[in-house]
Amino acid sequence: MKITAAVSRANQDAPSLETLELEAPRAGEMLVRIVAVGICHTDVHEHPGRHAPHPIVLGHEGAGVVEALGEGVRGFAVGDHVILSGSSCGACPSCLAGRPTYCDLAMPLSFGGKRLDGSVALSCGEERIHSHFFGQSSFATHAIVPERTAVKVDKDLPLEKLAPLGCGVITGAGGVIEALKVKAGDTIAVLGVGGVGLSAIMAARLVGARRIVAVDINRARLDLALELGATDVVAADEPDVAQKIRAVTGRGVDYTFNTTTVPAVHTIALEALAMNGTAGFVAAPRGEWAPAMFPMLAGGRQLRGILGGDANPRTFLPMLIDQWRQGRFPFDRLIETYSFEEIGKAFHDCEAGTVIKPVLKVGDAA
Ligand SMILES: [Zn+2]
Ligand SMILES: [Zn+2]
Fold it and tell me: Which of 99, 105, 166, 302 has the most Cβ atoms closer than 10 angstroms to its Cβ?
């Protein structure tokens, strides 16, 4: 079928809309009509072709309606509303243990730009266009999606609000609840309060953290962090950031959650920890960085990488949606909506940091 998709090609500063051919779903896949899709920093980073091959359709925070089922799909019916999250094999030890973000095949399934057998779902005339980005390639009116990528949601829910749950929100909220297992009475500092960091702050409030310190250079985001649950803020461009975080409790925080790639912030995240604290991080430091090992040894501290919030989307996302319905997890406060045609502007705004979570409205739910 003919679809419209935003294609990332070499030497273009943003994806641009093209008419492509999308093949029918193969065994275990579904055709999903995309209603809305969020833009995540990983899309912005991958657009120039960092890990994923060109030309490719990116997009990995899709939400839409199931239009057709490939052979063997069991858990879905035509007309189901779905949000899309990461892709995983379903058969490796991590998947079998309910930890699909650490699937043995996560890298090729997320960034390979094709199915594991090498085939792609998209073409433009004779030209092969890479698909299946995070099992989605959802910067498009339609996507071919492996069944495991989709999470069914109630039809009364607004799909354009739910789109960012599948990556940005689950990364922050899962990081706090599933990976770090922050509980009532604990203390945490969140370093970098964009979409992921603010989701972490809302989750920390949800579980009853005693002190929640937001750290950023952007004053408007620090103000929003206070509204969404932070108890304290520290401006990251002023001196003595680690000491200021430590001073909130007098002995450092139990957890830090670092969403940035700035090496100096990774150092602060360790220095701010109390004894036996854990520094969780969701992005690697860009450039040379090494942790100071003696304070980790002497304080029994840990450094912990976290992908996709450690969360199983099939169980975690319905929980978050219930919390949102009950007014306890207002993640939709982060969203700014753009039309599909405005994808270039949305990319630039995301990169410039003038918007927290851009969501492209691609179609209607009905
Ligand atoms: Zn993402
Ligand atoms: Zn797996």
Answer: 166
Rounded mean pLDDT of 283-297? 95
Closest CA to 191 of 287, 288, 262: 262
Q: How far is the C-alpha of 309 from the C-alpha of 322, rounded, in Å?
A: 18
User: Could you tell me the CATH superfamily of domain 172-307?
Assistant: NAD(P)-binding Rossmann-like Domain (3.40.50.720)
Residue 164 alpha carbon to ligand 1 centre in Å: 9
| Residue 348 CA, ligand 2 centroid: distance in Å | 34
Those residues whose C-beta lies under 8 Å from the C-beta of residue 235, and which sit 6 or more positions away, are: 215, 216, 217, 219, 222
Q: For the whole prediction, is pTM greater than 0.90? A: yes
CA–centroid distance, 308 to ligand 1, in Å, is 8
pLDDT above 90: residue 134 = yes
Tens of pLDDT, residues 301-318: 999 999 999 999 999 999
Q: Give CATH superfamily name and number for 2-166+330-361.
A: Medium-chain alcohol dehydrogenases, catalytic domain (3.90.180.10)
Distance 147 CA to ligand 2 centre (A): 14
